[in-house]
TrEMBL record:
It comes from the Eukaryota. InterPro entries: FAD-bd (IPR002938), FAD/NAD-bd_sf (IPR036188). Pfam families: FAD_binding_3 (PF01494). This is FAD-binding domain-containing protein. Keywords: FAD, Flavoprotein, Monooxygenase, Oxidoreductase. Residues 30-193, 316-371 form the FAD-binding domain. The keyword Flavoprotein applies. One of its GO terms (molecular function) is FAD binding. Gene3D superfamilies: FAD/NAD(P)-binding domain.
Length: 409
């Protein structure tokens, strides 16, 4: 680590930069921004490969600060493969829920059209559990909580400078990896591409085990995921690790629509969902979901475009996971994020930390086609789900989901 020292206070002219990273901390060769699945998988894999000169900077104040946390299915060739390479597959299997791989499709009148996916090798795990497994596998002092990256600029030496929102800076980093999700602040140092609103928003609600409607709902919707399609809207119910449910009410709304609503006003939110414009004429089982759901939260769905996946490699900076290629949820996002982490760690190990630019270029060239494919799958999924009914959906996704013609027709 000789030669990688903390910047002195006052190295930069701006008075905002009076505070700097504490002197006890040395400058890492690799700065990973974001302790999500991608950033933590990368940290763990670097550790496994003996590349220990890295730091993860995360905006959350601590490991339990983040409320986001749907269940994720981890696929054998991608997410599971990365976990295996990281020496964590057995730990993963302790948490993996094979009973939740079932996938059902229904119509708005309450009929189940199709059930599939039982026993699939794509077990579910809660995001919080996946994060815990990864966090436990990375030395604690390598993660700097409460560090909100504001931007990356470049110094006179052309090396990246990290600027944090509290005014701290970090210079002389060899490689900044943006694993900071859809709204990446690192991305701007590489490309002008920005995610665009898809026209679709998932309004999340919860039915927990102490909810009076819980037993009825669990009986109606069961394990795994239940997708209902009608009138160009959807609902998705998804069982979580603690057997509670997340429900996504998928609606087509103008950009920013949900920012105009107070989602803490649970009754008003329910009234909106129950109105004739939304689920007013859906079967009672769906309206009951709305009547009992709590903790509403809007996930407006944004995506980069396939054309964005072609930037010129920039020395000292790269992107992985959603920061690189966020798309409409297509069941692959976290798997692809962990694959990126594996590919980047492998490339750095192969080329050596002294040849970081070559390593990054190779990683990016191989990542682009994966990213284009994922964005494409996201577009197909969005186009297929928000349709008149499940039969139209099935027609559109049969080949992609491997559903035979005899099912659901
Ligand atoms: C509603 C919804 C449902 C989904 N369902 C699925 C699914 O079933 N299966 C699936 O595979 N994928 C799913 N996805 C997609 C999946 O969540 C993402 O693809 C995946 O989380 C990407 O991982 P990541 O590590 O790249 O980014 P993230 O998970 O977004 O992690 C980014 C990390 O960076 C941190 N960060 C952000 N900004 C900064 C900053 N400025 N400074 C410091 N730290 C920062 C964040 O706090 C976070 O910890 C879903 C997405 C949504 C919105």
């Amino acid at each position: 680590m000789a030669g990688y020292k903390i910047i002195a206070v006052g190295s930069y002219p701006s008075p905002r930069l009076r505070t700097s990273i504490p002197f006890t901390m040395t400058t890492p060769k690799i700065a990973i921004i974001g302790a999500g699945p991608c950033g933590l998988t990368l940290a763990r894999l670097l550790e496994c490969k003996g590349i220990t000169d890295y730091i993860v900077y995360e905006r959350d104040e601590g490991p339990d600060a983040n409320r986001a946390g749907g269940s994720l299915d981890i696929h054998p060739e991608t997410g599971q493969h990365a976990l295996r390479q990281a020496g964590l597959i057995d730990k993963f299997k302790e948490y993996a829920r094979y009973a939740d791989t079932a996938f059902a499709i229904g119509d708005k009148d309450g009929n189940k059209i199709l059930q599939m996916g039982e026993g699939r090798d794509a077990p579910e795990i809660d995001r919080a559990e996946l994060r815990k497994i990864l966090l436990d596998a990375v030395p604690k002092h390598k993660i700097k909580w409460g560090h909100v990256l504001k931007e990356v600029t470049f110094g006179h030496d052309h090396k990246p400078l990290l600027h944090f929102s509290d005014g701290q800076t970090q210079s002389d980093v060899r490689l900044v990896v943006g694993a900071d999700g859809a709204w990446s602040k690192v991305r701007r140092a590489i490309t002008e591409a920005a995610p665009r609103y898809s026209g679709k928003t998932y309004l999340e609600g919860r039915i927990r085990r102490d909810n009076p409607f819980y037993e009825t709902m669990a009986g109606d919707f069961g394990a795994g995921m239940y997708l209902t399609i009608g009138d160009e809207m959807i609902t998705i119910t998804q069982r979580q690790g603690d057997a509670s449910y997340r429900i996504y009410f998928g609606l087509q709304t103008p950009e920013g629509f949900f920012r105009t609503l107070d989602l803490h006003n649970v009754e008003a939110t329910r009234d909106m969902l129950l109105s004739a414009k939304c689920y007013g004429d859906w079967a009672e089982r769906y309206k009951d979901l709305i009547r009992h759901a709590t903790d509403f939260w809007a996930w407006s769905l944004y995506a980069l475009s396939k054309e964005d996946m072609n930037w010129e490699s920039v020395s000292g900076v790269t992107l992985c996971g959603d920061a690189a290629h966020v798309t409409i949820p297509n069941g692959e996002g976290v798997n692809l994020a962990m694959t990126d982490a594996l590919e980047l760690a492998t490339s750095i190990a192969q080329h050596g930390v002294e040849h970081m630019d070559k390593a990054v270029k190779q990683y990016e060239e191989e990542m682009f086609p994966r990213a284009v494919d994922s964005i494409h799958q996201g577009e197909i999924m969005a186009d297929a789900m928000f349709v008149k009914g499940p039969e139209v959906f099935l027609e559109k996704v049969r080949p992609m989901m491997g559903i035979s013609n005899s099912v659901g027709s």
